[in-house]
Amino acid sequence: MSFMSNFSQWLIKKLRAEKRAKILILGLDAAGKTTLTKYVNTGYFQAGLTPTIGQNIETINYEGWDITTVDVAGQQQFRFLWDIHYPGCSAVIFVIDAADIERLPEARDILKIHVFDNPLVEKVPTLILANKQDLPSAIQAPLMIQLLSLHLDMKDRTFAVFDCSALTGKGVLAAFTWLVNQLEMDKM
Ligand SMILES: Nc1nc2c(ncn2[C@@H]2O[C@H](COP(=O)(O)OP(=O)(O)OP(=O)(O)O)[C@@H](O)[C@H]2O)c(=O)[nH]1
Ligand SMILES: [Mg+2]
User: Fold this and answer.
1) What is the pTM of this model?
2) d(CA 181, CA 90)
3) How many domains does the chain have?
């Protein structure tokens, strides 16, 4: 093998090796975090998942990136565990059950405490997912931005709100592509 092909293989390996990211997936219990993570990993909806206790850590390869997803338990008694995962995270995904209007104020409070006002993640891009769009009562992104006052609270942050359904998969790819584009930009 020539020096150049050795060199180019080394370079490709090195560049690929550097494309590593840890993405933290937060949100209230039953928002759909694990369902979404499974969909991203397998391309299929998995029914009957049990509520997460602790966290699920998985690795996916996407567009040359080695992405570790940390899907945490959303139930209140486990939320203290989220603190362990903030250091070193490259992006946050905050999943909201967009059809559960009653819990939107709670989702907003948790988003504020754990993301907006959290200095450990102030420099990382945040993808907010208005999940469960397959349900007729789901609120869509423009109204979600208003209801959660994201246009005010997040004005100094890199964030986007996407509609999606972890059941049908609609919107998941577009949202994930936005996030990976942010990771690419952060690397420049
Ligand atoms: N209709 C519909 N149901 C969904 C969707 N995403 C998740 N679900 C359902 O919502 C319920 C909770 O989903 P999970 O993925 O376990 O929620 P979670 O956010 O991981 O919850 P915790 O692990 O308790 O924090 C399950 O019954 C899922 O099948 C969706 O996009 N549409
Ligand atoms: Mg879960």
Assistant:
1) 0.91
2) 12
3) 1
